[in-house]
Design a protein that fits this description.
With 60 residues, the protein is of the alpha+beta class. The chain contains 2 helices and 2 strands; from the N terminus they run ααββ. A hairpin with a 2-residue loop joins strand 1 and strand 2.
Length: 60
């Protein structure tokens, strides 16, 4: 389980938890969307219906 996430440099020294995955996705998407007229508000990662992790960095 998680062997593919563990291969990513971002998770080389950290357990790829839902919280860290939400942070990683948010920051990657924020960089990718920087050149577009949009604003990223929040990322939600769900392991199952009752288990979610959210990440946001507030507003600019």
């Amino acid at each position: 389980d998680h062997r593919h996430l563990n291969e990513l440099p971002a998770f080389a020294d950290h357990n790829p938890s839902s919280e860290l995955l939400a942070q990683y996705v948010y920051r990657r998407m924020k960089d990718l969307l920087a050149a577009h007229p949009v604003r990223l508000e929040q990322v939600m990662v769900s392991e199952k219906a009752s288990s979610r992790a959210y990440y946001s960095e507030g507003t600019d």
